Fold:
Amino acid sequence: MYVAVKGGEVAIDNAHSWMSEIRRGDTSIPNITLDQISEQLTLGVDRVMSEGSLYDKDLAALAIKQSRGDLIEAIFLLRAYRTTLTRFSYSKPVNTANMTCLRRISATFKDIPGGQKLGPTFDYTHRLLDFKLLAENEAPISPTKKYNDNKMPHVLSFLNQEDLMQNEKDNNLDPIDITREPISYPTSRSARLQALSRGDEGFLLGLAYSTQRGYARNHAFVGELRIGIVDIELYIPELGFEINVAEIILTECETVNQFQGSKIEPPQFTRGYGLVFGQTERKALAMALIDRALRWKELGEDYSGAPAQDEEFVISHCDNIQATGFLEHIKLPHYVDFQSELELIRKIRADAKVNMKR
Amino acid sequence: MIKKRKFWMSLLATSNQSDLLNLWEQKKIRVNYIWLRTPEIGSIMAQGRMGVTGDKFNIGEVTITRCSLKLNCGTIGHSYVQGRSKKKAEISALCDALMQTKMSKEINKNIIIPLEKIKKDNKRKILSKAEATKVDFFTLVRGESD
Structure:
């Protein structure tokens, strides 16, 4: 049991005041602006929006500034703000086939309709520090090329046509919303995907890596990874029709995995799916691998006891706000709890000593 | 009419706030109206589909501001716009209302068409830059002698 303490108000105020001063840093250096954060630290902003589960660049930039660049603290701030918003409604499901792609690659087919576009990527860089960036006012302009506005169908839809890929059917089921009802286990894939989409990148990365190393092994190919802008369509009740209310950047990853087949179905490829706010491809990739690992029951696979197959383990530990809240609360005063522990151990030891003398 | 209204409301909703504000201020349009619903900041839950074509699931929320107003002539304008700008919501609802009146030509010319151009230019820029990063991978055959 936690027993509250009182006092310390002045110390707390002064601590926060010092924290603010340190956050500002050397005042001879210009104060960082939110525009600078949202324009130049875009991937940090994207991570905060995805794990904060709220798409708003300005707020994510503010949260990063306020948290001194501690992204989990920033995510916490955004999640807290999120709870104060009136939820107007749910969007129509996004149509990622109509995405305006910045990047679109496939590791399974080299020639795909619409082509492979690397986009603004760190891939194929040498990971050497670029000292040119030390110079101020660098403003590179990248090349452009004439394009045709052809559709970019999903790569895996071609495997679907041949029936080589398990078809993902729309059964018209209403998804669970984990912001409205607490998760109970066993849960559904919809709840899992929502939790994974806002889950901690580091945790998901580690778990996804564990599946590659042999814990719940299901060898994954990246069928397709695409990053781009999609429209968010919303039904407006006052009008009786839908409009696009927002344009957001999403990262989508589809993996192709093996499937043994069963008594009623011949072997077929199966899919892991990742869909995350912003340009967040490491996370989307990890999400797809974990989604696939968690589908073992539905696909009639063996449970090998691997962490990535344990839905309760994965889902109840992937949320960094829950995790950090519980972890960090043990820093707060627990004097009374500890006092009782102390008294208990003294008594046990005293009794033990008496018994030993006998 | 619905198709056209859908188009301009979508354009207003997804426009860049400063672009819209600039275009509106430049024209110095003055109209009288009363609020039916003052600007309200909230969110909507964006949904996706499992494996692109499967059942729905929730991705996360997006901030949205909405409002409704009525011009003196009785025309009603609504807006649901991306972000948390009450000003953007107000101007969008005014444009929505005015697009249904005699002023539609003026609003279309000075606000809607310029916004559409900005949007198209932006899309063109992305697609042409993406095109420049298009790769033609070719596989090397190993161990073949000829």
About this structure: Helices of chain B lie at 2-14, 17-27, 86-98, 104-132. The longest strand of chain B covers residues 33-49. The first helix of chain B runs from residue 2 to 14.
